[in-house]
Specification:
134 residues; mainly alpha; 54% helix
């Protein structure tokens, strides 16, 4: 008996090909939002467990790469074993920088990530406390 759902195939050349929920239109809307913020922004995708948030984000990342966006996918749950989440995030940032092969790109990404982490820290802490205090 299988308890875990099989992961949806997300083709690089057409990420929403196997999406049965018509989520490509939401990817277009979110892309338009991201493009309006020259200095960057933080987005939160909220939904109940099992509603497809992770799958959507994986599709959206590949979708953005088709338009030459530099994306970084970091799943906090997959990196939950690390005592300090910033270590896992910096590891992912290093992968991005090695793809670009530019030291200044790494510094820029780390600087931006630091700003994002500082702004997102209260929300992250609130979410963790909610989980712990249930």
């Amino acid at each position: 008996m299988k308890c875990k759902l099989q992961k949806l195939d997300i083709p690089d050349e057409n990420p929403f090909l196997n999406c049965k929920l018509g989520r490509e239109k939401y990817a277009d809307i979110l892309k338009a939002i991201v493009l309006t913020y020259n200095e960057g922004c933080v987005l939160a995708i909220n939904g109940k467990w099992g509603t497809g948030k992770t799958t959507f984000v994986e599709m959206w990342a590949k979708y953005l790469k088709l338009d030459d966006f530099h994306t970084l996918y970091f799943n906090a749950w997959e990196n939950d074993f690390i005592s300090d989440p910033i270590v896992g995030l910096l590891g992912e940032l290093k992968k991005v920088s090695s793809q670009k092969k530019k030291e200044d790109a790494l510094l820029s990404v780390i600087s931006t990530a630091g700003k994002i982490v500082l702004k997102a820290a209260p929300a992250i802490a609130k979410g963790i406390l909610k989980k712990i205090c249930r």
